[in-house]
Amino acid sequence: MTRSGRYQSIEVLGERVLDFVKDTGRFGLFLLMSGFYALVPPYEFKGIVAQIRFIGSRSLFLVVTAGTFIGMVVALQFHDTLVRFGSVGLLGSAVGLSLVRELAPVITGLLVIGRAGSAICSEIGIMRVEHQIDALECMAIDPYRYLIVPRLVAGIISVPLLGAVFIVCGILGGWFVGVVLFGVNQGAYFQGMYETVTGDDLAMGFVKFLLFGILLVWICSAKGFFLHLDPKGAFGAEGLGRTTTNAVVLSSILLLFFDYLISALMV
Amino acid sequence: MRRINTELAVGLFIILGVGCLTFLAVKMGNLRVNHADSYPVQASFASISGLREGAFVEVAGVRVGRVTGIALDHKTYAAEVTMSIDNRVRLQEDAIASVRSTGIIGDKFVKITPGGSDVYLQPGESLLDTEPSISLEELISKYIFQGKD
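^ Those are the sequences you sent over. The predicted structure of the assembly is below.
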C-alpha cells in the first residue's frame, strides 16, 4: 500500500468505505447463495439434524432457565407497579404481552448468539484457517451446501421452537411469582393473558424468531467463512478470536436493530 | 450412563418445541381447530370504541362466542360487528347487544341480554337492538359541563 503523505487521511476514509461496501456485498451474496442451496435439492438431512441438536437441543437448558427467571422477574416488577394502580388483575396480560412481543425474541436470540453463534463462527473459521474449506472445494463438495445450509436451516427451525419454550417457561415463572407467591387470582392471570395476547402479537413474536434465526447463523457463519479476507489479516489464533468476537457483537447489534425495525413496522 | 444419541435429543427438542408452539397458538392466537360449532350473527352499533376483533361475547357473564369482524357501514356510519356464537346458544330476535368493559381500564366485550321473543335468530341475521359502548370521558364531560347550559 503506497500512500502519499498529503492525502493519507482521505485515503484511509476511502479504504474504510470500500471495505465496508465489499463486506456488505460479500455477506449479501453469502446469504443469497445459502438460501438458494437451502431450497434446491439434494438436502443434507443428516447435517441438519446434527445442527438442530447443536443449536436447539443443547440450548434448551439455557433457554428454560432464562425463560423461567425472566418470567419471574417480569411478574415481580409488574406486580409491584400494578399494585400502585390497583389493577393487579392485569398481571397476566402484562407478563404475556411483554414476553411474546419483546423479551422472548430478544433474549432467546442473544442467548443463542452467545451459545451457538460464537461456536459456529469459530468452527467455520478454524476450517478456513486449516484449509478444510479449500479441501472440500477440491473434492467438488460445495462448502455452502455442506457447511452453511444445515446450520441455516437448523437455525430457522430451532430458534422459533426455543422461543416457544421460552414463552411457556416465562408464563409459568410469572405464574409462580404472581399466583403462588403474591396471591394473584389464578383465573385472572391466565384468562387475562389469553384475552389480551392476540394472534397479531404472536405473529410479531414469531416473525422476530424466524428473522433472528436466519440473522444469527448468517452473520456468524459468514464471519468465519470469510476469515481469510479480513482486511487486518486475521489468519491465525488471534485473528480467529477477534473475528468470533466481531461476529457476536455484529449479530447482537443487528438483532437489536431489526427488533426495533420489526416492532415499528408491525405495531 | 448411556449417551443420548442425536436423533433422540432432536426428537425430544422438536416435540417440546412444537408442544409449546401449539399451546400458544391455541390459547392465545385463538386458533380454532373446529369451525363448525358456531354460527355468525351481525349487529350494528352507534359506537364500539375500544372493541377489538377476538373480544368475547357474553350472555349473563358466560362466554358464548367471539367478535370475528368489525367494519364501518359507509351509509349510516354505524359499526357493523360480526360475532360467532356457540351453536348450543340460541338468541331471540329481540335480544339486546351492548358493548361493555371489564372495569375502567379493562377489555371491551359484547354483552347480550336475552329477549322474550319466540322467534330465534338464524345464522347471518342481525340483532336489531343494540347499546353503544359507554365512554367514561363523555360521561365525565356531561357531568362537568351540565350546570353551564
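The CA atoms of residues 13 and 19 of chain B lie 10 Å apart. The radius of gyration of chain B is 22 Å.

Shout if you want it in another format.
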